[in-house]
Amino acid sequence: MDYRIGTRGSKLALVQANGVKSRLAAAYPGDTFEIVVVTTHGDRVTDRPIAELGGGAFAHELERALLSGEVDLAVHSMKDLAVTLPDGLVLAKAWTRGDPRDALVCRAPAKSLADLPSGAVVATGSPRRAALLRRMRPDLVFTGIRGNVDTRLRKLFEPGPDEPRLDALVLAAAGLKRLGREDVISEYLDPSVVIPAANQGQVAIELRACDAELKAKIDALGDDHAEAVATAEREFLREAGADCHLPIGAFAEFRDGRFTLHCVSGPAEGPVTVEHRTAGEVTLVGAGPGDPELVTVKGLNAIRAAEVLVYDRLVSSELVGAAPASCERIYVGKESGRHSLPQDEINALLLAKAISGRRVVRLKGGDPFVFGRGGEEMAYLLEHGVECRAIPGVTSAVAGPAAFGIPVTHRGVANGFEVVTAHAKNDEPLALDYARMLDVSRTYVFLMGLARVREIASGLVSAGRAATTPAAVVSAATMPEAKCAEGTLADIGDRSQAAGCASPAILVVGDVVSLRGRLGFPCAGRRFLVPVIEGGSRRIPGLLRALGGEVDERIVGRIVRIDGALSPADLEGVDRIVLTSENGRLGLTDEILAVVRAKGIRVERVREVKPDVRTLHLTQPDAPRVSGVRHIDVYRNDPVPIEGEVDLSRYDAALFACASSVERIFAAAHGSTRCAAIGARTHAALERQGVEDIVTAAEPTAESLVRACAL
Ligand code: SAH
Q1: How many other C-beta atoms lie within 10 A of the C-beta of residue 245?
Q2: What's the pLDDT band for 337 if we cut at 50, 70, 90?
């Protein structure tokens, strides 16, 4: 391929771009690389201080050239880039960084900052350098300066007749070195004191996000450490509200095996704040198999204290939502087939977030160390001096089968179990040693193998395992769409397909599968239809699943607040508000709550509304009215069209918690099954649909409804 490398035309920029070019050319001899000079706004306007030109003054034209296809990659000094790149552009992984320090260049006889006499004039265009140096030497005079490195050196050493006399300059050491002018440096300033600009000394290579092939080539020459440091320093810029008028800088220092982020920020004038942050800790947390209640207490506490949460696909939204509102949430999981962050980018991300001083939680499905690459992430972080600990999780390898009443061991049936990965690249056959999986006293649990169920089953049979060996596929165990197919090695492939098992799924092979339904899971093997309301309670499906049942939840409605239904005037003379559903709380807007609190009105959840003039019932239009009580409709249950058809004969029972759900389900249903009603109104609605086999809950509760038809 021919690639065009865009760069600014300054001597320094050209040196950098040529450096990138020669490294790429050496690594990829089959490609050609050509330098294209693009003039930037920052180069054209030379009569104003850089800080006045706005962020990205040197970058915009290069980015435009990238987006228009004029160039394929752009080489920048990373510190010139705005923290947020234009849509469609990305940075390649950072290469090894140059010298990050600022350097002092003095006019003889001074040789260092300490040598400069009181009142000496130090030139720098950067508010940050001036502010930090002023902290050390308040007696010096700071003045602005512009121009390229050669111009600045000339202004110091050979000022023209009209130019002010300068005693010293501050410049980036990396620039002087790249230009071969290291000789003029009098003193390297300690970067933990004179904190450099974020990303100082770092070359950035920017390219189009869609150029995956080119990115892979550049990334291959990247450096983990430089990438993490570059990201961490940019993070600080984002946090401090990057603006080159302000004295902002960040330098991630790695010393004695630990990172410290030195950072400075402050107002345009006046004193700056300097901080030295030690790296934050990373906690790997096992989220459990899916049901958010199956996280450990310790894991949940860690999530609640997270400042950054990096999570995978199989993690429930409830757990992601349990982090504080201010927590930054980053999704790195992959939808099958779609792009996800490669592991080394996840590692670099975790490291960067930790270096930026934040408490990071890495939330993974199941247990972090069971096919979760938790060990790799931990090793990487420890190697880079970041503290890392792991909080175990309930692994799906054990909890998945258990959710359907299959114990992985059972005395006299299986005396051990083995967890096997059935993951393979694309279409290659699995490299499983079936001959080692013939022990009839063991349970074999295959993860990541839904697409390979038939291949594994026939592999085991060919190796000598009986075709009658019990086998099950459990899919989305402990999640709302949980399913289980049970059979033998001979037919489990077909059965899993017929049951509609979908990823994530586990194949369990062994005699323990036949214990299913016999071990305190009275609903194992039974399917239930439960109409649910979006945003409403999911208690009934939860109870059924806990009993080992499979539940098909169908959304039939959506709860919508009726705005303005309740006004503060309605609370006149009220001393008790009652709700017959949690949805009634939708009426309690902030404005209403303020009045409720001020008047000391009680808010209570009740099963039944009793007549009382001082009671107000917050409810919905379809609810029954009780005379002698004031009802106000504060929400509606709007119908949601049912997806697909409903074949009732596929279910052992259907459970209805309200009359409107009966009407909505039956509008799309055929066949018949036993139906359970939560109360008299729902019972009547079922009768109207011609249902004959109806059971009614003894009390209007989810528990009672489940008991009525499932136990
Ligand atoms: N660390 C995880 C496993 C990660 S590998 C753990 O300990 O559970 C991902 C595989 O786990 C999936 O392909 C699937 O085989 C299995 N898996 C995860 N959650 C599951 C669930 N709720 N039901 C069935 N299988 C699940």
Answers
A1: 13
A2: very low
Task: In whole angstroms, give the CA distance from residue 294 to residue 287.
Answer: 7
Give the CA distances from residue 87 to residues 207, 208, 218, 654, in Å, rounded to whole numbers and listed in that order: 11, 9, 20, 49
Query: Ligand 1, closest atom to CA 290?
Result: 22
Q: What is the pLDDT of residues 364-392, one digit of tens each?
A: 999 999 998 999 999 999 988 899 999 99
Q: What residues contact residue 19 under an 8 Å CB cut-off, 6+ apart?
A: 178, 203
Residue whose C-alpha is closest to residue 3's, from 49, 92, 53, 72? 72
Residue 447 Cβ < 6 Å to ligand 1: yes
Distances (CA, A) of 43 to 7, 13, 240, 451, 663: 12, 11, 27, 57, 71
- Give the residue among 414, 404, 554, 591 at the shortest CA–CA distance from 483: 404
Residue 374 corresponds to which amino acid?
G
What distance in Å separates the CA atoms of residue 450 and residue 342, rounded to the nearest whole number? 22
Q: CA quadruple 314, 349, 382, 354: dihedral positive or negative?
A: negative
pLDDT digits 0-9 by tens, 588-602: 988 899 899 998 999
Q: Which tokens sit at 276?
A: 């030295």
270-303 burial: b if 16+ Cβ within 10 Å, else e: eebebeebebbbbbbbbbbbbbbebbbeebbebb
How many separate helices (H) and strands (E) can be counted in the chain?
20, 35
CA–CA–CA angle 85, 86, 88 (5° rounding): 105
**Going by C-beta distance under 8 Å and a sequence separation of 6 or more, which residues neighbour residue 632?**
565, 566, 570, 587, 616, 617, 618, 619
> When comparing pLDDT for 251 and 525, which is higher?
251
Supply φ then ψ for residue 250, to 5 degrees. -155, 140
Residue 411 burial (10 A CB sphere; 0-12, 13-18, 19+): exposed
Token output for 212: 């995956």
User: Across the chain, which distance is largest between two alpha carbons, in Å?
Assistant: 107
For residue 284, give the 3-state DSSP assignment.
strand
For residues 191 and 445, what is the distance between their CA atoms, to the nearest angstrom? 54
Q: Are 386 and 282 in contact (CB under 8 A)?
A: yes
Report the nearest-CA residue for atom 24 of ligand 1.
505
**Which long-range contacts (C-beta less than 8 Å, at least 24 apart) are formed by 668-676?**
668/642, 668/644, 669/645, 670/645, 670/646, 671/647, 672/648, 673/529, 673/648, 673/649, 674/709, 675/709, 676/705, 676/708, 676/709
The first and second tokens of residue 689, run together, are 């649909």
Residues 136-183 have pLDDT tens digits of: 999 999 999 988 888 999 999 999 888 899 999 999 999 999 999 999
Query: Which token pair is 56?
Result: 């990205």
Tell me, in angstroms, the distance from the centre of ligand 1 to residue 233's CA: 36
Distance CA 133, CA 354 (A): 29
- CB-CB contact of 162 with 136 (8 Å): no
Instruction: Give the residue among 524, 505, 403 at the shortest CA–CA distance from 456.
Output: 505
Q: What predicted TM-score, i.e. pTM, was given to this entire model?
A: 0.71
Q: What is the identity of the amino acid at 659?
A: A
Reply yes or no on whether the pLDDT at 65 is more than 80. Answer: yes
**Ligand 1 pocket residue status of 372, Cβ below 6 Å:** yes
Q: Is 136 in the pocket of ligand 1 (CB under 6 A)?
A: no
Our CA dihedral for 242, 93, 5, 234, rounded to 10 degrees, sits at 10
Helices (H), 140-189: 149-157, 173-178
Distance 463 CA to ligand 1 centre (A): 26
Whether 496 lines ligand 1, by a CB cut-off of 6 Å, is no
205 pLDDT higher than 50: yes
In three-state secondary structure terms, 402 is helix
d(CA 302, CA 472): 35
**Please, what is the angle between helix 11-27 and helix 149-157, to 10°?**
140
